[in-house]
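Researcher: Structure prediction, please.
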Amino acid sequence: MRRKLVAGNWKMNGSLAANTQLLTEIKSELGRAGASCDVAVCVPAPYLAQCQSLLFNTPVALGAQDVSTHEAGAYTGEVSTGMLSEFACRYVIVGHSERRAYFAESDELVAQKTARALIAGLTPIVCVGETLAQREAGQTDAVVGAQLNAVLSSIAASDLAKIVVAYEPVWAIGTGKTATPEMAQEVHAMLRKQLRAKNAVAAEEVRILYGGSMKPENAKELLAMSDIDGGLIGGAALKAVDFLAIIRAA
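Model: Predicted structure follows.
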């Protein structure tokens, strides 16, 4: 049975003081009760050292929000897998919809970042998702399938179980709209079928997270779906009470 994963994506939010307060509250709760699921926070690069220190010897794993396709060199502003590993990062988000939309990241670039993360022993959280226009045009399966296929084509079948996939309907992020549990499950099931075509055994181990504005109010129903293995949490991850409520639902 797949162990659920709840991963917070802080996006471009945080401060030294706010981070300390948030993680202290999360650690306090998890330290008392533990967690029956895996928990991670993906933080802005400047806060990796602080969060590494705050999370040391806790059940909360550290993750980054992006990574370079290059190992080292003259790539101003980029962050390498080697750098992330030095801060004990376990996860790294690749291909988030905001990276694709605002920074023109292509499916091919996302695939390259996934492969680079795997080489370094990091677990890539590979994001896929469609816009509202694409959904209304009936293109969800084609768009999301192409995004995942680019990644699957770039990795070995034996590495499939080392990735996490996150389905994030772009139209449901920060808009107040959410896919119904049944709508989300339909896409997750399609993604699982695509994973099976790559490696039928490993596909059953891959966790597929839902990343479309999961909140305490809808987490239980979403997480009850057979192919929804956790959440990639945005805004709710910035409030300890909300993040912890989702963890309890998982």
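Model: The domain at 5-249 is CATH 3.20.20.70 (TIM Barrel).
Researcher: Thanks, that helps.
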